[in-house]
């Protein structure tokens, strides 16, 4: 098999002299020099194609150029100097949607659980930059772990939303064609989706599609047929993650932010803990949900079994005055699909937020740097071009924000979830890219099963947490209350009568409730994600200064200690106001 892979690589990349090796698990390691990053990624994908290859460790380098690498040395030194700071049964690395979901799932047991994240809040990585789609599961390669967990996770979201008090809109997704000759392809796609377990896919004629979506007539589009997936959903991904984290905290899980894991401690092939920038945390089990750094954390644990290649995507958000044309999420099949895109990615499209903002994108570009969150002109242009078939002009008018995120893709383009056969007590939850948000409930369920089974094999059967409460009360959203409800709320708590964010009608009461929650946001951007204060047209131009004041007051610290998004992003450099002036201002 190695010779066949080597031959295929040489045919595709004549200048590459690949060194290949494969272990008994089917983990293929590839070394050599490539001309550019595109070749590195393409060679990794090509090497991963044989079914006998479980995954790829890609150690190809760039000819004459360094590949950006994280330097864990300073963080390790900080941790060793601080010494032991905690002892837990389960340490979860990463507090994105997967890490928070697993934390909540394991809080059903009598366990000391700590979740750590290098960011200043939950959902600071791929979850933050997600478009919020809860995919039905039809658009995933059949037979993959992604496909299985996507379908199961989509189904579980209804109970999640009910128990945890976050909004889930089952908006459905409609794929339309204007050429009747393509209808058999829709029927085949529906049958394949049924085989995969996707809920109730339907093929519609053109008239029924037009009745469902008046936007077709508005745009002068005549659908010949359409495929309808009613289980498509939308959530605010960071609000879902925060709800999971808060419920986990209610049930005894602790969270530690601004905490970079720099090393994994092992002894005789078993996990013993982790060295972090905050100190040493002893742990009987480590669950690796570290996103783009999951491969490196696994290697630190002595199990080098996959490589994450960062895939950057850019999203543009439009002002609410640009109303979505369609009620459901909609795709014109055979038209937008022709746009140039990354073949291993869905390629993005037109979506909307729960609050009604149109989202354009994301793009999908392979980059060597896992910290490269820059937005390029090309990435933004691609995102905006996706609106051409949906009644949205390709101009920049109406954009209130654009940003980029990194997808943590491995070379099999599948989830990599397993109890390590190399390092006992170490669970990998890697390669969680789209549809990772949709699959999150099923990912947590799977990891719980792995954890319970491993504990039993080690002779430590788990006890149920008798005080476990799966319910979390939904936060009050002033803007969604009627006038009578608003008046009554203000009578009970005058803080709800003080509008902080005028664009989104977010009150001081809502911000204070978030700051006093079980997992409080501790930066301006974290407050924005939790409450929407600063997400509107002015993007914090009016409300940011007041949010800084509220953060400083609630944290009991000086204004200069408040950050935009964690360590090193302090908004104010120094206090230049005389004390008398501060007292007069009530600060």
Description:
The protein is of the alpha/beta class and 587 residues long. The chain folds into four domains: 2-62, 2-Layer Sandwich (Alpha-Beta Plaits), CATH 3.30.70; 70-171 and 231-308 and 410-474, FAD/NAD(P)-binding domain (3-Layer(bba) Sandwich); 172-229 and 309-408, D-Amino Acid Oxidase, subunit A, domain 2 (D-Amino Acid Oxidase, Chain A, domain 2); 478-584. The chain is 31% helix and 22% strand. The protein has 17 helices and 24 strands. The strands form six sheets. Strands 4, 5, 11, 12, 13, 14, 21 and 22 form an eight-stranded mixed beta sheet that branches. Strand 1 and strand 2 (27-34) form a beta hairpin. It is globular, with a radius of gyration of 25 Å. The N and C termini lie far apart (70 Å). The model has no long low-confidence stretch (mean pLDDT 94).
Topology:
Layout: H1 2-12, E1 19-22, E2 27-34, H2 37-48, E3 55-62, H3 73-82, E4 84-93, H4 97-106, E5 113-116, E6 133-134, H5 145-164, E7 173-177, H6 183-196, E8 202-205, H7 206-212, H8 215-218, E9 225-229, E10 233-234, H9 237-250, E11 254-256, E12 261-267, E13 270-276, E14 279-288, H10 294-300, E15 309-318, E16 329-332, E17 349-352, E18 358-361, E19 365-366, H11 377-385, E20 399-409, E21 416-419, E22 426-430, H12 436-457, H13 483-492, E23 499-501, E24 506-507, H14 508-515, H15 524-531, H16 544-555, H17 579-584
Parallel strand pairs: 2-3, 4-5, 4-14, 5-11, 7-16, 14-22
Antiparallel strand pairs: 1-2, 6-10, 7-9, 8-9, 12-13, 13-14, 15-18, 15-19, 15-20, 17-18, 21-22, 23-24
Helix pairs in contact: 4-9, 4-12, 5-12, 14-16
């Amino acid at each position: 098999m190695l010779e066949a892979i080597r031959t295929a690589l040489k045919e595709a990349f004549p200048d590459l002299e690949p060194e290949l090796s494969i272990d008994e698990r089917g983990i293929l390691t590839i070394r050599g020099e490539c001309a550019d990053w595109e070749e590195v990624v393409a060679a990794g994908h090509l090497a991963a194609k044989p079914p006998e290859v479980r995954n790829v460790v890609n150690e190809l380098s760039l000819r004459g150029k360094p590949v950006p690498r994280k330097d864990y040395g300073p963080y390790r030194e900080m941790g060793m100097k601080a010494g032991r700071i905690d002892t837990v049964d389960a340490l979860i690395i990463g507090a994105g949607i997967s890490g928070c979901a697993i934390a909540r799932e394991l809080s059903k047991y009598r366990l000391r659980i700590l979740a750590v994240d290098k960011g200043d809040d939950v959902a600071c990585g791929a979850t933050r930059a997600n478009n919020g789609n809860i995919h039905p599961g039809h658009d995933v390669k059949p037979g993959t772990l992604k496909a299985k967990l996507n379908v199961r996770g989509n189904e579980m979201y209804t109970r999640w939303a009910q128990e945890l008090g976050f909004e889930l809109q089952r908006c459905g997704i409609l794929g339309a064609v204007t050429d009747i000759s393509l209808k058999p392809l829709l029927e085949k796609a529906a049958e394949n989706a049924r085989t995969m377990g996707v809920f109730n896919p339907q093929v519609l004629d053109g008239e029924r599609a037009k009745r469902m979506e008046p936007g077709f007539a508005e745009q002068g589009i005549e659908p010949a047929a359409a495929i309808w997936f009613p289980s498509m959903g939308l959530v605010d991904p960071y609000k879902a993650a925060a709800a999971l984290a808060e419920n986990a905290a209610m049930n005894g899980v602790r969270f530690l932010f601004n905490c970079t894991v720099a090393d994994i401690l092992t002894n005789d092939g078993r996990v013993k803990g982790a060295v972090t920038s905050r100190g040493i945390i002893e742990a009987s089990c480590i669950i690796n949900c570290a996103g783009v750094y999951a491969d490196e954390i696994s290697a630190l644990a002595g199990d080098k079994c996959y490589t994450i290649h960062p895939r950057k995507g850019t999203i543009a958000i439009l002002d609410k005055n640009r109303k979505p044309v369609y009620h459901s999420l909609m795709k014109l099949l055979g038209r937008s699909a022709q746009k140039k895109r990354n073949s291993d990615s869905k390629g993005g499209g037109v979506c909307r937020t729960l609050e009604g903002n149109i989202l354009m994108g994301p793009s999908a570009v392979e980059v060597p740097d896992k910290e490269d969150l820059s937005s390029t002109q090309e990435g933004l242009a691609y995102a905006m071009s996706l609106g051409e078939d949906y009644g949205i002009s390709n101009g920049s008018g109406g954009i209130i924000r654009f940003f980029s995120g990194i997808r943590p893709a491995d070379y099999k383009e599948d989830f990599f979830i397993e109890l390590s056969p190399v390092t006992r007590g170490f669970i990998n939850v890697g390669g969680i890219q789209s549809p990772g948000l949709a699959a999150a409930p099923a990912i947590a369920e799977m990891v719980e099963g792995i954890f319970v089974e491993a504990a039993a094999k080690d002779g430590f059967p788990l006890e149920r947490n008798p005080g476990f409460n799966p319910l979390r009360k939904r936060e009050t959203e002033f803007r969604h209350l009627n006038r009578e409800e608003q008046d009554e709320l203000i009578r009970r708590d005058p803080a709800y009568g003080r509008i902080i964010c005028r664009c989104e009608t977010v009150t001081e009461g809502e911000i204070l409730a978030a700051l006093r929650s079980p997992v409080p946001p501790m930066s301006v951007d974290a407050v924005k994600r939790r409450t929407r204060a600063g997400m509107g047209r002015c993007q914090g131009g009016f409300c940011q200064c007041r949010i800084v004041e509220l953060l400083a007051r609630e944290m009991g610290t000086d204004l200069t200690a408040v950050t935009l998004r964690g360590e090193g992003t302090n908004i104010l450099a120094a206090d230049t106001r005389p004390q008398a002036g501060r007292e007069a201002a009530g600060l």
